[in-house]
Each structure stands twice: as C-alpha cells, then as structure tokens.
Amino acid sequence: MLYSQQEVLSYVNEEDVKFIRLAFFDISGKQKNVSIMAGELERAFTEGISFDASAVNGFQEANSSDLYLHPDASTLCVLPWRPSSGKVVRMFCDIKYPDGRPYEKDCRFMLKTAVEKAKKQYGLDFRFGTEFEFYLFKLDESGEPTKIPFDNAGYMDIAPDDKGENIRREIDFTLEQMGITPEYSHHEEGPGQNEIDFRSSDVLTAADQASTFKWVVRTKAASNGLYADFSPKPLLDEPGNGMHINISTNKKELMPNVLAGILSHIQEITYFLNPSKNSYQRIGELKAPKYVCWGIQNRSSVIRAPSKKTDEKIQLRSPDSSCNIYIAFTLLIYAALDGIEKHMTPPAPTEKNLFDRVTAENSGFETIPSNREQAQRLAEKSDFVKNHICFPFCFGD
What we know:
globular; 24% strand; 6-stranded mixed beta sheet; alpha+beta; 11 helices
C-alpha cells in the first residue's frame, strides 16, 4: 500500500508508533539507518534529518559533510519483530544536499532517474523479479559464524532432512506482514542452502523489497541461532549463491532490443553485478554461467529465456547479491534502453551446454570478466558506465 505523508503522520499518531527508522544505502549497497522519535517525523518530512556523510562508505568526498534524509512515505512498513506496543516502523529515504538538491550518489535516486527516463522517452515500464540463494550456517560457542551448514539436505528436499523449512516459513510470514509476498521457497542444492523467489514488480519496489528481504533473512536467522550468508561462494566445493534477475516490460515487441542491449554491455557492468572478489570464485562453477550468450531454457548461458516466448521475460543469471541492487538495476535499465535506441538485435540463441568444459572452450563465445580486477578495468574504461552513474566505486572484499 502506498501512503502519503499525511497518512503516515496520522498512522504514527493513532497506532502507538514510538520510533521511526530512516533507512538509506551506502555505495556498496549496505543498508544504514538512523532512528527518530515519533515527534520528529513531521520535521523529517519538511526539513530532512541530517547525518555525517563523511562517515559513510563512498560518500566521504561530499562537498559538505552534512547530507539530509527525507523519508519516502510510500515505503512505510512496520517491523513485526519489534514490540506491538510502541511500534517501530521503517521508511526508505531520499538523500539530499542542504539546499534540497538530490545527492548524486544516492543509489535509489539513480534508479528513480533511470525508471523515469524509460517511462518518459519510451513509455516503458520495466518489471524486475529476483531469485535469491543463501546459506544457513551454525554459530560457534561465542556466537560467531562458522562454515558448518545447518543441514545436509539437497535440492528441494523436505523435512526432516531440510532443517531450514521452519525458518523459511518464518521469513515468508514476516515479509507478508511487511506487505511483501514471496512467490515460492525451497531448499537448494548446497548443504544448508536455501532459495526464496519473488514475483516481478515495478523496478524500485523490486529493489526495495530485495533489500528488505536480505535484512529479514539475517534477522530471522540470528533469532534462530544461525547465520545467513549471501556471499557468492561461501563453500569452495559447493554451489555458490546467485541472484537471478527476471526482466520484462509492458512493450513486448521491444524485448529483443532489451536482451541485445544487456548482452552488449554485460562485460563492462559486471563489476557492479558481481562486486566482490568472492564473486569470481562462483562464476563458471557449478551452474553459474560466464559465457556472453543467451539461450531458450538454457541455464548455462548468461541470459536465459524461460520459454520460447522470448518477448515475455528474460532471466539474467550471472549476478549475485553482494551487489548494490539499486545500481545493478540502474545499469540494466540503461543497457536495455541503449539496445532500444540503437535498434540492437540479439544473436541467435544457443543450445550448447556451456557447463561442459570442452563444449564451452570450443564455443567461440566471449566471457564475462574472470576476476574483479579485470571487471574494474573494463568498467573504468567504459563511457557507458561513466555516462550513467558516478564512478569510481570502491567495494570491499
């Protein structure tokens, strides 16, 4: 449900809300927040709440150390794991300079700008859906994460082998209370590995829901004495964690151009889709594709069309959830628009099994970068990247 500022103020006054968390994201996509009391909310809407930008990763070079958080009323949600008496709510925020100008490194602002361009210039409404994989690991006696999986179940196994069943149910129920409905969930191939998927929605909502989802998963894992690990390759000899992105538009006739545009730019934007060193231990291993091609129902290609109706949906299979999802979505939209603007057409689909080493090596297809250093060099040389986002970004390990 989308709320106006006045509706949010009324809700806070009438429903015993005591704390409001104002959330935003640093350059790497890590969620941050500041809590304010209910009495400060009206000022937050009218003036914004200041914070020290010099202490935030990627914001340090801001001309003024003070930036301001302006809550987006439409993103209001109650945190169901907090007390029902004296509720806690959260809203995502727009980041602005003291004079009210949008802060150019606000990743939600970047995504909003891309969405608006697609709508204004082409009447295009993109819809993205995400599929997340994550591991559940046990904690040691000191409460620190281990690499001991919570169970030894396999793909779509059931209880009692699948010990994550109850936790996934808790996650789904919590998300539903927050206005987010997962499509389905199941145990994945790796020991202790799980998957939860979401239906496609408008792009900003999809990004907000994905960010909320990761927070909820970690919170529910911790409350069960476990650690949720979204890193791309937690266990070297087991499947990695991917984040598949399903992409569609309201203009199906443009989907071939969308597909071609994304394929044409995939190498130079991989740095933002797979930003950690650990990302490149996953790519090319155990069903994580690396060859720049597409195929119908072909899980070994970077882009997969789930059915022969390629005008309906495509699935990008290379990204992982260590990325800043707002920046990832931003670049994918611009890549798609470039495909439309230049009337790009995709190459023929491939039926080759590119997980077979010999087949892959003889395929003639280019690959996405094989390590983060190579990915960064391609991004730094890319006019496409420089034209659409503030670069460079520095990511951690």
